[in-house]
Structure formats: structure tokens, C-alpha cells
Amino acid sequence: MISNCSRLFSKTFLVNSKPTYPAFSLRRALSIHLLQVRAMASESAASSTFKKIQIQRDDTTFDAYVIGKEEAPGIVVLQEWWGVDFEIKNHAQKISQFDTGYKALIPDLYRGKVGLDVAEAQHLMDGLDWQGAVKDIQSSVNWLKANGSQKVGVIGYCMGGALAIASSVLVPGVDAVVAFYGVPSPELADPVHAKAPVQAHFGELDNVVGFSDVKTGKALEEKLKASGVPHEVHIYPGVAHAFMNKSPEGVQRRKNMGLTDEDDVAVELAWTRFRNWMTRFLSI
To answer: Distance between CA atoms of 229 and 168, rounded to whole angstroms?
Structure first.
């Protein structure tokens, strides 16, 4: 299933970003040159602390990366449109060290591919099997529960944020969800049918209309109210899309996309809210 999320990103970042990225039509014309996918590049030094595993899904397997305490509550960490890169691994490592510790698991939704610029990331997101990604999340939740985690949450960013909310609707066994700047299309998963608690975070200046702008965040809140699940929706003044990306590489990448806002206070507040949410719903 192809979500409309990727088309919304096309309009925002391929049109509004700096000239170093080609316009949408030019990108299509020169795709043979611009859409080369390079495997697992620019990873953080922390990558060596991850254990690479294979998880069974239907009649196939996919790679995942695990970090944290063996018997701790589990958290599935879902990638942005870039893939499993340095930033999502930074997030997972940080999560694994919070409070009394978590076991964080990153499923590789792109099967080893990473986008190194906006055009490549767009190409990968265009090609994602969204329903298949939901199955990957289900298999990841199942793996954590079969390997020492009595309770399991899901967190995602951007594309992964939309999938995290989808998991609250479609994935049995999820005990809590946190989503950053991403809402799924109703064709994939309507949040009015959420079954797990959902906390969502949005930047006031986010201009990805229909996916992560303020209007979409407020519409999500109304749907979550109708669902009856515990929920929180937070909007952070003065920040735009992907405001949680604070590594030097992540900050520079945002600037290359025209996202120059930085607010350490908002980032720390969001992490505190995440910690409180997961403590509330994943504690035994």
C-alpha cells in the first residue's frame, strides 16, 4: 500500500529545500544518477554497541538492531524516511539508557538501504510497502515479548511516527505508543480506532501539510479523544519538522533542508514527556 505521506514530503522538501536538491520533475528525469541507494552509511560510533538479529515475518526474515538490558521493557524504534542511519541509532541508544533501562529494537524497514539525500530518501519512502511495514512492527513486538520484555512500546519519527500511530490501531500487543511529527493516512490506519495509549509531538512551524503540521496534529487529538484511549498531543512553539534530531550531522542535514530552528529546551521537554509516558504504561 502506498501512503500519500511521500507525496506530501515531495511538495514540502523537494520544492522548498535548497538548490542542492533537484526539483521533483528533474529528479524523475535523472533518477538513474540521483536515486542510488548506499548501504548503511554515516552511522554513529555507537553502532558497534548494537546487536544485529534476524526476525521472522511470514515466509521471510528481516534485520533488526537491538540495544539495552535483556529483561527490560521493550521499545520498537521506527526510522525516519532516511532509513536505519546514525540518527535513529542515536535515538535508540539514548532510549535504552533512560530510567531503569529499556531494550530498544530498530527494525530495518528498508532492508539495508539508506537515503543520503532528500531525493534518495523520497525514493525509498515512495517504495515502502506500508502494510508490510506494519507486519514488521508486529513481528518486532512479538520478538521482544518472546525474548524477555513483558511489555512493549513503539516510538517513531516522521515516517516512523505515522507507523507508530498505525501500530496503535493495527498491532495487537502494543502497550504504548509515542509518535513524533507523523500521522498515517486513514486508508492505512484511522486513529479513531486506536487501541493503545498514544502520545504525539509536533512542531508549531512544521509545514508538511496533512502529515505533521499543527492542523493535522489537532485533528489527530480529536480522533484520539473519540477512540477513548489515554492520549496526549503536544505542540512545541518555534520548532519545525524533525526538531528532535540533535546530532551534529542531523542538525546540518536539517539546515540543508531549510530547517534552521534549534531549541534544546523543547527537545528535553519532549524526552521527559516520552519517559513519563513509557514509565506509566510499560512498568510492571
So the answer is: 10
Measure the CA–CA gap between 220 and 225, rounded to whole angstroms: 9
Buried b (16+ CB within 10 A) or exposed e, 49-73: ebeeeebebeeeebebbbbbeeebb
Cα atoms found within 13 Å of the Cα of residue 188, Cβ hemisphere only: 25
Where do we find the cell 538492531?
65
pLDDT (tens digit per residue) in 95-112: 999 999 999 999 999 999
The x, y and z cell numbers of residue 260, run together, are 534552521
pTM, two decimal places: 0.89
**pLDDT for 8:** 65
Q: Pairing relation of β-strands 38-39 and 152-157? A: unpaired
| Residue 248 to residue 127: CA distance in whole angstroms | 28
What are the CA-CA distances from residue 110 to residues 71, 114, 121, 136 (Å)?
A: 28, 7, 10, 11
Q: What are the backbone dihedrals phi and psi of residue 84, each rounded to the nearest 5 degrees, phi first?
A: -85, 90
* Cα 92 from Cα 105, distance rounded (Å): 7
Amino acid in position 131: Q
Calpha distance 7→214 (Å, rounded): 18
pLDDT band for position 284 (cuts 50, 70, 90)? confident
Query: Do the beta carbons of residue 278 and residue 176 sit within 8 Å?
Result: yes
